Backbone:
């Protein structure tokens, strides 16, 4: 195993801990705990908070293309990751130290630049560490990489909400210290991880940047043809992400109104989302070693077929959340286990869509375009969150009410996903052709139906 792998995986685990911990409490912080320097409340309405959460996520993933171009053309992957990690830490520092909407805005802007910029570089930098003698260890390294991401996400989603709401009262500290701890501690851990990443600088394989002309030449006519053929897929996936990323906004706010008692333990509404990365750790090997081989005896589970099933499952996940909201609208307090069921369906959908679509896109890209195609895929995540942000801005009435109040909000997104899934099926069944007109897209000419 290359000596630099441990440094890369450790840095990524800490970055994911910082990011998912911050994102887990963001909607709650904006709607319940946000105060200005003079102590006056500055909280957002629910729809407004959801809009800004998704606008931030959209910006972060949108900036991933800038990180890829910066790494490939000017700085190289190592220096891009290192310097943008410092920007990331500064963003956490502003969230922790500067009160009110000013600190929130500046902090999230820097986190979007840092996290978005390093996102397409880390996995590519890890791949650069391998050569002909040890390339057989790449799957093992990426398995540890993926587990580190989800372990970091699960741990932070459980721990960070306690920093926001529980630790200060138990320690006898003022409650308003909560946001300082909740945003500051993950930032300190990210700074430590960046230092460890710097320590590994002499152990890494450093591939020099190709320059702007080199990147342009690498794309070429064939590259633009590949991106053009992948654009419809990325458009459908954008709708998927417009629903999925609401586990950090509308699903958190919904959990606040549910009976969250679990055998005497009452988790915060922000902690419920920890079930998602936990389920990922279970479902990914389950599908790889059990589900796909069993299904393969009846029908080949090609990437496009898996994505189709995942789209329809996402419709089911949001239908469950809509039914939960209908009960809340009637004044009931349904058990949190119903949202657990929705998470099981949603995470199954994620396994079928997210990992599969990235794999499919990666297979279509020439070797010189892997990072560019991965960045284009991340732009679909950005577009999906932009859809959600625009919807939440549009539905706000001047009197503080919503055009999509209660369960109608969840039914709207379930319907949007259903329409996208229905249109996806004939597109996926149509033979895919490359830029030369030859049907050479790997695993792309199968019939979904």
Residues:
């Amino acid at each position: 195993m290359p000596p630099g792998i441990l440094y890369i995986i450790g840095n990524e685990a800490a970055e994911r801990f910082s990011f998912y911990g911050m994102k887990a409490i963001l909607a709650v912080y904006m709607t319940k705990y946000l105060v200005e320097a003079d102590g006056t409340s500055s909280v957002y309405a629910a729809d407004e908070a959801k809009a800004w959460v998704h606008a931030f996520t959209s910006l972060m993933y949108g900036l991933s293309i800038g990180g890829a171009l910066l790494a490939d053309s000017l700085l190289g992957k190592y220096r891009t990751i290192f310097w943008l990690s410092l920007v990331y830490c500064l963003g956490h520092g502003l969230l922790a130290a500067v009160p009110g909407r000013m600190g929130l805005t500046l902090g999230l802007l820097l986190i979007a630049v840092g996290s978005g910029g390093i996102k397409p570089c880390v996995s590519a930098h890890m791949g650069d560490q391998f050569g002909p003698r040890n390339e057989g260890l790449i799957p093992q390294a990426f398995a540890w990489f993926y587990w580190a991401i989800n372990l970091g996400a699960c741990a932070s989603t459980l721990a960070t909400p306690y920093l926001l709401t529980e630790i200060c009262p138990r320690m006898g500290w003022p409650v308003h210290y909560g946001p300082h701890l909740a945003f500051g501690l993950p930032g300190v851990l990210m700074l430590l991880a960046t230092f460890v990443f710097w320590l590994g600088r002499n152990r890494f394989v450093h591939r020099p940047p190709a320059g702007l002309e080199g990147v342009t030449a690498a794309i070429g006519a064939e590259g633009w043809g590949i991106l053009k053929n992948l654009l419809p897929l990325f458009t459908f996936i954008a709708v998927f992400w417009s629903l999925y990323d609401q586990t950090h906004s509308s699903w958190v706010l919904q959990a606040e109104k549910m009976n969250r008692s679990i055998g005497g333990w009452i988790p915060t509404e922000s902690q419920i989302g920890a079930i998602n990365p936990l389920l990922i750790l279970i479902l990914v090997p389950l599908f790889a070693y059990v589900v796909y081989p069993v299904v393969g005896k009846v029908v080949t589970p090609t990437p496009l077929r898996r994505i189709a099933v995942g789209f329809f499952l996402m419709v089911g996940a949001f239908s469950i959340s809509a039914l939960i909201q209908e009960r809340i609208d009637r004044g009931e307090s349904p058990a949190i286990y119903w949202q657990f069921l929705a998470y099981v369906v949603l995470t199954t959908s994620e396994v079928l869509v997210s990992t599969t679509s990235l794999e499919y896109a990666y297979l279509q890209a020439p070797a010189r375009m892997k990072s560019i195609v991965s960045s284009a895929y991340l732009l679909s995540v950005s577009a999906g969150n932009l859809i959600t942000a625009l919807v939440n801005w549009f539905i706000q009435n001047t009197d503080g009410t919503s055009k999509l109040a209660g369960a109608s909000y969840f039914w709207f997104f379930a319907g949007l996903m259903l329409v996208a899934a229905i249109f996806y099926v004939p597109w996926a069944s149509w033979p895919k052709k490359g830029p030369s007109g030859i049907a050479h897209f790997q695993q792309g000419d199968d019939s979904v139906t």
